[in-house]
Every structure is written in structure tokens, then in C-alpha cells.
């Protein structure tokens, strides 16, 4: 193929990609009025309100990111870029969350996985990792991830008692074999996440966190699991379909209050 033919080929490929994007936009425009109305209602559900718990606020902020991404889904050719944008958007939102409550600290993204560094007078004070779910590191794999993060945080001078982890949902993050081993029983992931088995999920969560005591000083005060089946992405997609699956303001969160975590960091 000569240079002229190569140029034509590149132009044709570029036009094809533009056509894919435009096609998606044209399809969306057909239902523009309805989509705008539903998306507006969805964002209204996520509005901040007085006397909101930290758990509800963080969950809503995260859901907002997924809602935004769901409204602007990319063609498959651009999914990798969309994934990177989602991760960056989540990090920005989560950093904003801590900036609202730790005004005397510097909040920075770290180079350690999903971790956020918290500094005071440019000195490392704490690290917080926020995971939407554990779908990429289920069961015992996450314990190894925590160990690695703790070791890296120790190297920059952060005390192991000042390293925190927040997991927003158990949904998509359970390893069935590992779960049954911890519970010494036989239950599927879906059954465990069913509201009627809430007490069993709480037991599993406690035992799962308890395994981190070799890496963290007080794991039950440093690790928080917010929800069982409730998940920010699933919740966002339901809201876009005008389906209010649950009132988050009335949801009973799984772990201890995040207020203790914030107060602990303030006192460092």
C-alpha cells in the first residue's frame, strides 16, 4: 500500500469512529426531553440534605459520578478512556469529601492504588482508601492488597493505626468459597446479600475485617463496609430508569459510624 492509500485508509478509519459517536448522539437526541427530565429527577434524589450521615453523603457523591457516566456512555471503542475518566472522577469526588471535613489538612491523591494521602504541614498523617466494591480483589486477595498498601504507607511515615479503608458495597465483591469458609456454612452470594440474611452478612463482615488485625491496629475502627446489595452504579442506573429502588436516607449501613474515623484523623 503506497503513502496515498495509507492516508485514505487513516481518513476512512477516523470518519468511521466519528460516525459511531454521532450515531450514538442522534439516537439519544430522539428521547432528549424524556431523558433530560429523568436525569434531572435522578440528580434531585442525590441532592445533599440537612442532617445527612457521612455514609449517606459519601454514597450519594459516588452514585452521582456513576450517574453522570451512565448518561454519557461511550461507544465500545472508547470504553478504556471512559474507565480511566470514571476512576479519575471518583478520586476527585472522594478527595472533595474529605476536604469538606478536614479543612486543616492537605488532601492528595497517592500513587498507591485507590489511596488518598492526608497531610498536615506537608507531613503524612493518614491514608484512606475508598473502594466502590471488591470485584477486582475478592476474598483473600483483598487481604493481600491491604497488606501491600499498609507496607507502602508505613514507608512514607504513616502509622498503621492511621490507615483506613472504606468499601461502599459487598455487591460484586464476594468470593463464594471464601464466604462459606468464613461462615462455616453453605450459602450463595445472592442469598447472603438478601435482606432477610442481614444478620449473617453482618457476621461475615465482622469476620472478614477481623482478619486484618495483623496489618491494622484496630481494624474494626479502621475498616468500613457501607452496604450489602446496594451499590452506587446499580443505584445510578435504576435512577436513570426512574426507578427508586430504595430510599438511601433510610438505609441501615453495615459498619460503625464514619464519624469516628473523621474525628480520629482530626486528632492526629
Q: What is the number of beta strands?
A: 5
Report the average pLDDT across residues.
Answer: 84
What is the succession of H and E elements? HHHHEEEHEHHHHEHH
Number of helical regions: 11
Q: Tell me the helix content.
A: 40-55%
Q: How many separate domains make up the residues? A: 1
**Spatial strand arrangement across the major sheet:** 1-2-3-4-5
Evaluate the radius of gyration. Answer: 21 Å
Q: What amount of the residues lies in strands? A: 5-15%
Q: What characterizes the major β-sheet?
A: 5 strands, mixed
What is the first-to-last residue Cα distance? Answer: 66 Å
Shape: globular
State the low-pLDDT regions, or none: 17-38
Q: What would your notes on this structure say?
A:
The chain is of the alpha/beta class and 268 residues long. The chain has one domain (31-266). The protein has helices at 3-30, 32-45, 54-71, 79-101, 140-155, 176-183, 189-193, 198-210, 219-222, 232-240, 259-266; strands spanning 106-109, 115-120, 123-131, 163-169, 223-227. Helix 3 packs antiparallel against helix 4 (79-101) and helix 3 packs across helix 10 (232-240). The longest helix is centred in the N-terminal third of the chain and has 28 residues, at 3-30. The chain is globular and about 45 Å long. The model is unreliable at 17-38 (pLDDT under 50).
